[in-house]
Fold these 2 entries.
Entry 1:
Amino acid sequence: MAGFRPPNSNLEHYKQGSLLRTIAVLNQKGGVGKTTTVVNTAAALAMLGQKVVAVDLDPQAHLTIHLGVDPKQSGPGVYEVLTKSANLAESLVEVRPNLWLLGGNIDLVGAESELVSVVGREIILREALETVEDSYDYIMIDCPPSLGLLTLNALTAAKEAFIPVQPHFLALQGFGTLLQTITLVTRRINPALKVTGILLCMYDKRVILSSEVKADIEQFLAKARETDCPWSGARIIPVHVRRNIKLAEAPSYGKTIFEYEPKCNGAEDYRTVAEYIHSQTGAESERQAEPVVIGEDESVGDVVEKA
Ligand SMILES: Nc1ncnc2c1ncn2[C@@H]1O[C@H](COP(=O)(O)OP(=O)(O)OP(=O)(O)O)[C@@H](O)[C@H]1O
Ligand SMILES: [Mg+2]
């Protein structure tokens, strides 16, 4: 595994004994790489021997389809857990070695209105996931492109939020609303929630705009560093997922990138993202985290070599 060390210690909850990492992958902007990130990072973590649950909170059910499961025939999933008190452990389907899916389907569109009069409707997913938390190492939640009740359930259940960003024109439009929502959730429902990673997806370093957007985000995060806001410890994950056509092709075959084209750039990038994420867990649990600031322009190779 690559020798990454975490750039900071923003993972306080590991010090409280629990090694489970529950990560909501969200951005209300559509098509930025949320689902691609959850599928391939979850698959890579599973290949590292971690027990991983992938949760499809999106009525589009792209995560479910991408993992090769037919949403119409997948049995109970997120919808049934949220609205019919289905048992979470019994709703998980083992889709690959070490990788379980809590499937989504189009019925989720109605969940929001069905739950409108239910007391505590934003904590249903958290309570359900708590019933299995001793059995898994990672739970990754793929959120829909909105900030409604489904995303709220994810933010309430998660300890961490990852925000994939596609560095293009208006990439940061809506960022303020997203962070405001996260702030409200931390104040009112889930004080443990932190934004831990911003992942640049579909990155093309030849395009000036990509580095401009990256610089804007870095500046924004730097300003937050001395504050106590939920993203004060957030970093741009030092692996940028390059634009790679194989990543766009893999979903229609119901395959992860490692099954579809294991040697392509997309597979290399997501493998390295997973190694980075997992190195944070290892470092935190071993209490060995010395702050290491990874330089802005270093490539993945540089970082691995230095660590
Ligand atoms: N690095 C990449 N290179 C090329 N294509 C990509 C890459 N990442 C994702 N894609 C493609 O871009 C499209 C959007 O990606 P994805 O579905 O992961 O985004 P999303 O944020 O989950 O979208 P939505 O908001 O609709 O849920 C998909 O067709 C996907 O296959
Ligand atoms: Mg998606």
Entry 2:
Amino acid sequence: MASRLGASYRPTSPSGPLRLIAVVACAGLAATLAWAADSNTTVPSKRPPDQELAQTLWNQSCAPCHGAKGLGDGALAAPLGGVASLSGRITDQTMNDLVDRVRKGDGKMPAYSETIDVGDTRRILEWIRDVSSGKIQPKAGAAAKPTKPAPHPKPVIEPAAEPLGG
Ligand code: HEC
């Protein structure tokens, strides 16, 4: 009896390839659902990506002395009596101290605590660390972008469209 039940059960179970297709289809559906849920719930970022923001702030506030790549060749470096290259200076060990130094000022370098917050100062240093060591390149054309990102962009309210052929 038991063997007959087993025998009658087996043929209704999906064969190997069918089962594989079912598993793959389920995984695909799950991935699609996860993606859909994610894209529906993610609030679009109003803030530019960190690297872009860092480059903008760098070009605006730091490059005149430190140079576009932090190598100490900014236009104001010579009149200041020289600015050292940042290449290799920014490490996990020195990061906190350097963030602090930028915020408080350092000799001929002005203090930035009033104009750049701690998080952005760190973002700038992480970015220039990678640029000055040649790990990444500054993005072309970024300097031409508007400088300070608006902290709270206002929603654009389109005027009602003129009726056509009114
Ligand atoms: C007016 C010129 C000037 C500007 C603008 C300026 N710096 Fe400096 N910075 C200096 C000078 C001078 C020093 C002192 C050490 C040196 O000669 O490099 C210095 C030191 C530093 C140091 C410490 C370097 C080390 O190895 O000890 C960091 C990091 C730094 N600046 C980052 C920045 C950042 C980030 C900005 C922009 C937010 C900035 N600086 C803007 C001139 C400037």
